[in-house]
Request: fold
Amino acid sequence: MLTIAVSKGRIYEEALPLLAEAGIMPVDDPKKCRKLILRTTRDDVQLVIIRATDVPTFVEYGAADMGIAGKDVLLEHGAESLYEPLDLKIACCKLMTAAHKDAPSHRGRIRVATKYVKTAQRYFAGQGIQAEIIKLYGSMELAPLVGLADCIVDLVDTGNTLKANDLEPRELIMNISSRLVVNKAAMKMKNQAIASVLDQFEQTLAKR
Ligand code: AMP
Reply:
């Protein structure tokens, strides 16, 4: 049995057509049933649909053989213990700094609100900017509006969320897309099954 962990939400929705091309279609709709392990149209493949931040953990410990997660989550997790053989080019967006549209660009020490603590620390250190990072779990956009932080680090797609909150994107930290990750032991032990899924994904991506 091959277990694939997929990030809930947008990544899952965008991964469905790719999985379908590899003959992997969930038998149940995770929105309608409460099952945590989804059987698929392939008897030898099952899916677990979980929080994005949990995907690298499941794959690292071998609870899932493969996973589909955003590069943002992999960077923050520090996914050196995983193979990352494929950029699936889905759920594309940008990891950016953003600040209030009237705020001056940062001078001196700044406060940054984000859920990407390690990534933000690395980024500001690389820029030679002294940054105090405040960990938040959601609604980062609120932080500059209520004086909690000078700026945020978050994912930006259309920019509408920032705009709706009088914020604007500032510096690009990284272009983000979802990646296929593989457990290192599984890559050896289940090589044939994993190689065939990888191959099918690659063929589908080549056609796009
Ligand atoms: P937008 O308003 O289109 O710029 O989207 C920004 C909001 O959607 C922010 O709350 C982001 O955290 C979230 N977001 C954007 N792209 C992604 C993605 N690829 N994966 C997960 N969340 C995303």
Notes: The first strand starts at residue 2 and ends at 7. The chain has eight helices and eleven strands.
